[in-house]
Amino acid sequence: xxxxxxxxxxxxxxxxxxxxxxxxxxxxxxxxxxxxxxxxxxxxxxxxxxxxxxxxxxxxxxxxxxxxxxxxxxxxxxxxxxxxxxxxxxxxxxxxxxxxxxxxxxxxxxxxxxxxxxxxxxxxxxxxxxxxxxxxxxxxxxxxxxxxxxxxxxxxxxxxxxxxxxxxxxxxxxxxxxxxxxxxxxxxxxxxxxxxxxxxxxxxxxxxxxxxxxxxxxxxxxxxxxxxxxxxxxxxxxxxxxxxxxxxxxxxxxxxxxxxxxxxxxxxxxxxxxxxxxxxxxxxxxxxxxxxxxxxxxxxxxxxxxxxxxxxxxxxxxxxxxxxxxxxxxxxxxxxxxxxxxxxxxxxxxxxxxxxx
Length: 357
Ligand SMILES: [Zn+2]
Ligand SMILES: [Zn+2]
Description:
The chain is an alpha/beta fold. Helices cover 28% and strands 23% of the residues. It has helices spanning 35-41, 66-72, 92-95, 144-147, 150-162, 179-190, 205-213, 227-234, 252-260, 284-289, 301-313, 331-338; strands at residues 2-5, 8-10, 24-33, 57-64, 79-82, 85-86, 106-107, 126-129, 135-137, 171-175, 195-200, 218-221, 240-245, 261-269, 292-295, 322-326, 349-352. Strands 3, 4, 5, 8, 9, 16 and 17 form a seven-stranded mixed β-sheet that branches. The chain has a six-stranded parallel β-sheet with strand order 12-11-10-13-14-15, sandwiched between helices. The radius of gyration is 20 Å and the shape is globular. One zinc ion binds next to loops.
């Protein structure tokens, strides 16, 4: 499925490329859908077009060159998750172990069709896998729609556990019960967090119930309850050791995170706000409480590895947050369902499965 303009996707037949010594061809089994897909569809990301979207690929290695097979330790027939970012490996960020901040980074789903061999994004039956990719083997016996959750779960591990160093005894407050908020609940449970609180809106009843099922101790309806008072009450007046904002566009959670967090606590900001300024943001609270605030963009290998291990262990009923499977030709419906543009239908985690076409 090729994006040719704003809110325009069309099916196209493209030649399957040859792969050299240091590349592979993936037969796509599933491609996860998230808020970034909607932003790309809406043209907000200003990606060059035409382009094949799809940045959460899971599939089976169909062809692979010797060098790539050696480096990745995978072969034809292996199921793999492909990290969405290509890094240069030589800039200061890459050499410093922060390859997701590479100065020269490219995202598969933003590379235009005109850039050979063209088959970059995962809204496709086949996808070219560049030699600079990072791939992870995944148990082939998991259903594809579950295995593809390596992506949101990886975010949960990196944003809610790795970055704020969440561990036993910590109280964690997660702002936003979308797929990444729910993934954060699972990751924090896995990390041994003591108490997990999740906020959402009135319309999020189903997601908040799922949050409790995944291990949240309390959920808070931010539209009908006083979040500050509830957090105080549920933390014996201390505030949360860790606050993770995974809400999109809402600016209030960022300003109020400084009130929710305990003295010396950590705040991770992972929800983007469309570059809006934050009204009511009082930086003195950061000083007085010695709060650590960290921005989070993307996920790295350690988060993905934790996610894949968790999926393979089958310890959590993660598949309960999977709500929709779509064929490639229904990619627009998938995106519009996620964006709540389809009345009466709510998606939490959804994916495209080329086998349905
Ligand atoms: Zn995504
Ligand atoms: Zn680099």
